[in-house]
Write a structure and sequence with these properties.
This protein has 389 residues and is an alpha/beta fold. Helix content is 44%, strand content 16%. Bound molecules: 3-isopropylmalic acid (IPM) and magnesium ion. The site of magnesium ion has 3 residues, from helix 10.
């Protein structure tokens, strides 16, 4: 192989090491979590995103405004609508998040974000990084919390997916060393493992969950997954009342469909890519990715989103007004809980369970055979009103 190509790649690799070393140092200097209760004014940013994103996100905003009416009227909670996180704008400036949008996002405390289109090979779009991934990195949203519940089957899982490292840390900076050799990198830091592990165990402790399962592929990906496993196990020792076990990702995907065993799982902590994959599988038991919300938590910021994509085909076929807002409404439940509005979070969650699973007076089919997104939002708000009486 051409020596010059090797040298060039080594130089790029060196730059990556320095960049990641700097990121690790930054994590060490992080302060504590923001306490939302002590703020005079809480700003909720709302980013519609692409495809069906604006429709379902604005529906969730409408429901949130309804639930938080007193605080909104008193100026204690402000909604800041941020347009511009669209694939057209991102493609025009060649950035995953345009600078002005990022500046606006940083003025908010928490963000409700609709799905954004992620360019992939063969698309008309330039190959820019995913806006989700970029936002998680820019705002250091290191924990991706994804709950999945199917009460009648005894399924009550909470996934703590590490959200800034692993295969995602430099996922768009792999090396094409030559035409025939490509190399990607997986990044794991001590600080990055410690903070996700601690959050998972604290959650387990505070929510009476007696088991945390650490999921890796440490038998093959020995260095980075090995580190993740060891650090999570060490943190687990500080929580003697919680049983820690560890599983490899392949058998875990199988055990999730084992009806006899899957109920034993409670809290999962896992590296980024495994968390991405297994949470789609898990959400399927609950009714699909359209039913699942996700919280991206950092010390300073937090972002709440759906776990599915932007469904551009629905928009092309003029069906966006029939899009299902349930994932964004589930994300809104997590947002409410995160800002300390637990009563409102519980109300919305109960209302969603009634509208989606038990009463089902209206159903969403994604087309004109079902109700519209707005009609469903109204139904949820009516149900909240009844519950609050
Ligand atoms: C998710 C999504 C994203 C991810 C994509 C859109 C980049 O699949 O939030 O799970 O891989 O994290
Ligand atoms: Mg995913």
């Amino acid at each position: 192989m051409n020596e010059a190509l090797i040298k060039e790649s080594v130089a790029k690799f060196e730059a990556l090491i320095r960049e990641q070393q700097e990121r690790a140092e930054k994590i060490k200097s992080e302060k504590e979590f923001v306490d939302y209760k002590n703020l005079d004014k809480l700003i909720i940013g709302v980013c519609g995103g692409d495809g069906i994103g604006p429709v379902i996100t604005h529906e969730a905003e409408r429901v949130l405004r309804f639930l938080l009416k007193d605080d909104v009227d008193a100026g204690k909670i402000v909604f800041n609508e941020i347009d511009g996180l669209t694939i057209e704008n991102r493609a025009a400036v060649g950035k995953a998040i345009p600078d002005d949008v990022l500046a606006e996002l940083k003025k908010c405390h928490v963000i409700l974000k609709g799905p954004t289109t992620t360019p992939r090979a063969g698309d008309p779009w330039p190959n820019i990084e995913s806006a989700n991934v970029a936002m998680r990195k820019e705002l250091d949203l290191f924990a991706n919390l994804r709950p999945v519940r199917v009460p009648e089957q005894g399924i009550d899982w909470t996934f703590f997916r590490e959200n800034t490292e692993g295969g995602y840390a430099v996922g768009s900076k792999g090396l094409n060393v030559s035409d025939d050799l490509s190399i990607d990198f997986v990044v794991t830091t001590t600080e990055g493992c410690e903070r996700i592990a601690r959050l998972a165990y604290e959650y387990a402790r505070n929510n009476g969950k007696n088991r945390v399962s650490i999921i890796t592929k440490a038998n093959v990906i020995k260095t980075t997954d090995g580190k993740f496993l060891k650090i999570c196990q060490n943190i687990g020792k500080e929580y003697p009342e919680i049983t820690t076990d560890d599983w490899y990702i392949d058998i875990t995907t199988a055990k999730l469909i084992d009806e006899k065993r899957r109920r034993d799982f409670k809290v999962f902590v896992l590296p980024n890519l495994y968390g991405d994959i297994i949470t789609d599988e898990a959400a399927e038991f609950q009714g699909g990715v359209g039913t699942a919300g996700s919280a991206n938590i950092g010390k300073k910021y937090a972002m709440f989103e759906a776990i599915h994509g932007s469904a551009p085909r629905m928009v092309l076929e003029g069906r966006d007004k029939f899009a299902d807002p349930c994932s964004m409404l589930r994300a809104a439940v997590m947002l409410l809980s995160h800002i300390g509005k637990q009563t409102e979070a519980d109300l919305l969650e109960k209302a969603l369970d009634i509208c989606m699973y038990s009463e089902k007076k209206l159903t969403i089919t994604g087309r004109d055979t079902g109700c519209t997104c707005t009609e469903f939002g109204d139904y949820v708000m009516e149900t909240v009103k009844k519950l609050a009486q």
